[in-house]
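Please review this pair:
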Amino acid sequence: MSDTKISQEEINGILWKACDTFRGVVDASQYKDYILVMLFVKFISDVWQECYEELKEQYGNNTLILRRLSRDRFVLPKWCRFIDLYNAREESDIGQRINIVLEKIEDTNRQKLQGVFRNIDFNSEANLGQTKDRNVRLKHLLEDFGDKRMDLRPSRIGELDIIGNAYEYLIAEFAAGAGKKAGEFYTPAEVSELITELVAPQAGERICDPACGSGSLLIKCGNQLKANNITDFSLYGQEVTGSTWALAKMNMFLHGMDNARIEWGDTIRSPKLLEDNTTMKFEVVVANPPFSLDKWGYEDVGNDIFKRFHRGMPPKSKGDFAFISHMIETTTADSGRVAVVVPHGVLFRGGAEGKIRAKLIEENLLDTIIGLPANLFFGTRIPAAIIILKRNKADDNVLFIDASHEFASDKNQNRLRIEDITKIVGIYNARTTKDKYSYLANLEEIRQNDYNLNVPRYVDTFEEEEEIDIEAVQQRIVQINNKLLKIEKEMAKYLKELGYAE
């Protein structure tokens, strides 16, 4: 093994090459699971091996070594390291062997990994093809991860973030190729960064994402605190899709967020983050829930024991306010704050949604509305907005920001730039009106607008067209016509000389 440290670019390149094994054969929303699980196994194998060797020099006694490792690390049973799988890559039952290794790793580390691998099947004919083709793909996958440069020992990779960053890089790349399904597991990094800046998590706070996907938004919040040398915080999440929940669990470990609590289940129908027979309360609640989710659970929560929908039941076919209602009811009374990504319809639709919106406003919970550019999110091109809600507000004003016109346009997606995020956060913190960008409205203005929160009602971005000098334009037309006549005469002369015209 090499002692030269691996760079972020190098590891990203190797991992992306490993995706060639599945690209074009398996949908990106599925093959991400195989790649990311193998990265996780390779990483914990290399960490285990280096730590084992270090402790062997210190203790010598194998029982003492295992006892010490089990306190702080994942424990790998015998024959369950990545190298064992790599050495068996030519075997005809390699898919089943990988499944058995994952099961043993999970059983041995049940407190940390219970259920994480239950939704992944390396012996699946439906996903990976018939035996011969499947074996070839798995052999190539193991050989890519067995690349000598993919030495992920702590002494070689340095900071843990290099693996966490690689994991995030892969998730982002998979999202770019997964179409509509991408929104189910990933929030673009720039949007996560913006939300984190807006909610500004503090030391000692509990932070929750009730629709956490692969956990990227929670990790952004945690990383901001760690960057300020703050370790006193707690991360909580819930995710409805089993394979995505598993990604979130692994994502937390790879980013050093080992104490994060991520639950698997439907947040609306069956919230899992409970305390004293009710929903847990958090200082910060953030989410990018599915837009206007149909069949979100209307029939199942009519008698909600947690009383989350006391402002009214959202319509059956649009679950946006179901998530918003859940989020606000899980905040602490003194300093709770919510940041949620929503489609623009949430801001102005009437009916049941209009009534809920009016009650949130009259309770003085609404703090800020931020209109975002279109095509920021994977799987949808529609523009979205961020709603900020706060407990215990100092006044009854609401800030409207129209940030929809300032972004970078990449090949397939638009993207918020650093300067765009900085501008939004600056105006948000200052709470000021800026011509054609933001407006600080009072409660009475919002009442007069019948609780309609559509951003253009408050932020006028209309640009008057420059006055046209008709006389100058006419003179220019005359000049062009005279020049055209002159050219036509010269052309006729040349053609006559060449014998093409009489």
Q: What stands out?
A: The chain has a mean pLDDT of 89. The longest helix spans residues 28-58.
